[in-house]
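hey can u check if this looks right to u? its 115 residues, i copy pasted from the old doc so theres a chance i mangled smth
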Amino acid sequence: DTLRKDGADIILMTPNPMRWSDPFYIDVFSQIPGLLDTSQERGINALLDPYAQDVRDVAKDEKVALIDVFTVFEDYDSQSGKSINDLLIAGDGIHPNAEGQHLVCELLTAQIAGM
């Protein structure tokens, strides 16, 4: 509301999905039974799925622009011969690598250019 009053254009972005690849995180979350399933590739997204949906809901309710990075990364992963791991830092599985950052930048640039 404050930003709108100041005349700003608002853009919300969902987080990118993650994958288990860092042994440290796998070990940490394995020690908390029932929190996240480290045996499932998308297990870490059990926390992110509802958060991404909350961001979508807020964008809709507040009538502000949304860049759904989460869905774009997941859609990339569903294409033949492509993997979400192509978009994430190797051995990290959390943060976008250069290719993932480029994809986010393209989405953000297109949104800003269209405002």
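The chain has a mean pLDDT of 94.
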